[in-house]
Amino acid sequence: MVSLADGNLMRTGTAVVQLSPSNVLPLSGSLASTSSRGPRFDDNIVKPEIGAPGASISADSGGFTATSAFGGTSGAAPMVAGAAALIKSARPFLSAADIKQLLVNTGQTEVYQPASASSVLPTQLAPITRIGGGEVRVDRALFSPVVVTDVTGDKASRAHGAMSFGYLDASKPLATFTRKLEVENRSFFPTIVVYPFGKTRVNVKLTVDGTKLRKNLMSSGPGGNAIGPLTANEYDGYVFFEGHHHKVSMPWHILPRKSAELVAKVPAGKLPATDPVSGLGAIPLLNKGVGDAQIFAYSLLGTGPDTPRGDRGEGQPNPTIRAAAVNTFLVAGADCGSADELAFVWEFVFHMHERKASPVGTFHEVDLDINGDGQVDALVVSGDAGGVTALSDGRQLSYAYNLVEGTAFAGFYVEHATNSRNVILRACGNDLGLTEADIGRPVRADFYAYNWYFGGNVESHLGPFRIAPYGEEFAGPAEGALLSYQQSATLPFIQFGLPPGADAHKGLLLINNTDFGSTSRGGATFDTEATILLK
After folding, report:
1. Cβ proximity of 413 and 398 under 8 Å
2. pLDDT(316) > 80
3. Angle at Cα 505 formed by Cα 503 and Cα 508, nearest 5°?
4. Run of H or E residues at 6
5. Which of 48-62, 77-91, 320-334, 410-424 has the weakest average pLDDT?
6. pTM, full prediction
7. Vertex 98, ends 242 and 134: CA angle to 5°?
């Protein structure tokens, strides 16, 4: 490997280069660092199902003996297609699903990958969500007498590939799953425990001890493009079936998250009454999940109905906002790059009806009419670190646009624990054209969510709301709260008077899987990721 320093020296033309055959590290059988990975977006079914050589391929389509270097999926996909064609020509009675499954069952499972995206050196075994059944081996598939298929009968088994246990909110001490594998002998000879042209079924049981799982490390903000967090949180391997002269395998995968299960012990989901003089109130809480409940309180602006989503391929993903909320905290002006002595950070919360593996491809946007002329003066929107409508990085940022001045700035990551319904955007007031003098002065805010990449472009909208920076009607503890397994506590909150011209708020929104830092990115069950308490 040539270092940057050595490369710069060679460019000067004064270096003497000597290559030693004894100092070679082969990259065959390893994964390119640029290779994409799964699992599949949102439903966490294993992708890819099979790997193939796709780096530095030398071939020319239609060029016969001509060669040119290219790579990526454009090189790997034709190899798998060619392997399938060879099997079909030799074993024409096999269905397309059988051929696919044979390739998955007979791949080379020992494939290595670089430990970081900045390296090309294969230093660790690649996870199932990067190679599926392994590197394609057409000779093994061609002569394999056995096909092993997941016949559980759900969406994951109908994908015909790996054995996907999917995503798990591990809020209980123990969770058990059973999947059904069918082992079919397609030959005249007895194999494994299956008679010629016979079938047998095997139940595979997986038990997850939620108390022993790592805390969730995955986020769509600073961890959006990192290899390590996903690899650390997923569990995978192979189930092998071995006969006298052959061996086949079935890859398996599960993505569990140590999760909280927070219960607000209040009647009918209503916010408890506050003291009429002090405005203070308290919410009794219990965490029934093995994961830590990481709680922040936001002032609830409004709620909205669910919009049915289209199925895969229908181009109607339609993200819909279930609740919108807001919070403000004051900071020193220098912390926001402001000349004022005092500045503020405005937080905008989207609690969605559906989960997203990542907000990538979806705009979560807050439009602000500051001067009351009916025109949008500033907005905050989620977007890729490579650009608002880019898909080049994976990390999601909160972009603050001052449309009056024509400026844009991204000073905060989007807060979104991977596979969550909650998206939190943050922006410094001065990046939106708001100063210390605007604290407590109402502006018009509209919350939008729509999918710009996967199709649909059907807007979900809540608003308009007349809200003021640092003028929220409800607030909780500034430092948040943390409840461990089976711990109960009383969460204090306060109800303030509203600034003149501001709309009344609807109650309190508790976000229960907030981001407490790199060692704990949150985690809660679908139904308890957020708690809506109406006044």
Report:
1. yes
2. no
3. 165
4. helix 4-11
5. 48-62
6. 0.89
7. 55
